[in-house]
Amino acid sequence: MTPRFPELPGVSRAALAAVSEGVAPAVAAAVRHRGDMVHLGWAGSAELVPGRRELAPGDLFDVASLTKVMATTTAVALLVGEGALALDEPAADRLPGFEAGGKERVTLRELLSHSSGLPAFRPYYEEVRQDPASADAFLPPARRPRDLEAAFARGRALVSRAVCREPLEAPPGSRALYGDPAFLALGLLVERACGERLDALFRARIAAPLGLEDTFFVDEARRGSGPERSRAFVATERCPHREEVNCGAVNDDNAYAMGGIAGHAGLFSSARDVAAFGQAWLDALSGRPGLLDPAVARSFARRGAPGSTRALGWDTPSPTGSTIGSLLGRGPTGAIGHLGYTGCSLWIDRDRELVVALLTNHVHPAGRRPAEILRFRRDFHDAVAQAVG
Fold first, then answer.
1. Which superfamily does 67-212 belong to?
2. pLDDT tens-digit map of 238-281
3. 85 Cβ partners below 8 Å, 6+ apart?
4. Is the domain covering 9-65+269-388 a CATH 3.40.710.10 domain?
5. What are φ and ψ of residue 229, in 5° steps?
6. Residue-range domain boundaries for the chain
7. What angle do CA 171, 75, 249 make, to 5 degrees?
8. Residue 72 · residue 114 · CB < 8 Å
9. I need a labelling partner for 297 at 20 to 30 A (CA). Which of 74, 76, 225, 270 fits?
């Protein structure tokens, strides 16, 4: 018997329109309202290149920068709640070498709020591609050795070193600029604080307690021996650096250079799991017991940098033009959320007790079209608001 899932017709129509108009080959969405799943649906094609494959309920999406909140921000929040980390301590006290480039006073709070003064992006993977000990990871698929453990270990070391050496572009706290290097650093810092790699920490401290069976990092050095071996994935970009269409390997090149496990990108997930994760944060923000300390969760949901919509790890709606649309997140306590480059998003409307997980492979196969995905995200969230009432 085919399982039945809850569906909001207006939300399904919005998803189907995005597929038919070519905004994204595949769309999956989950909506939770007051703790209940009120919508779970999927439509479109998991792959267009090299051949068309219909999206199936169990196919997993590369959620890109949702990794920042699902893994790294949540790990820091857990450690702050336990007293193992403090938001206003210098990151260099926990991550030796990070003091280089004038970063000795940069705090965890500034890294989380994107106000550290670090740049938005650096192509650290280029050094990995050119290094003789790690370049094999970026060979065309047919020429890649089967054993890439040493190559990815070297790549991880090179990227970690580059992040620690990265100089500031601006004084800490003087600006807010969204970017990846801060969360690469936070991922490394969390690993040092816990004595285990981010994928193991996420699995034990976040995924297992929340029952997130579809959510994990793919360890490129041991590909085929982890949870990915029995799963199907949604394709993302055609990558010139790896000479392939990414499918089941992280789209982000810096994360790939680190073996698929990084603080800014690397997680794969389903709409159901992303919504369940969002519910855990909503529960904490509403004062209910669960994974997170409510007081810590509320502190992370407050905007953390002057003149910015950024909270700690999370974003909040801007007055105009937010991807959450024109109807959600406008109540007294507002909303928190985050986007992913591949076309994914998570928004949590605190007043409506509403969690909206939207996963797409908008970038497949030719890359991002910002105006199209922005319009769809707004329309989709407006459709959710109208459907829920």
1. DD-peptidase/beta-lactamase superfamily (3.40.710.10)
2. 999 999 999 999 999 999 999 999 999 999 999 999 999 999 99
3. 76, 79, 94, 108, 193
4. yes
5. -65, -25
6. 9-65+269-388, 67-212
7. 95
8. no
9. 270
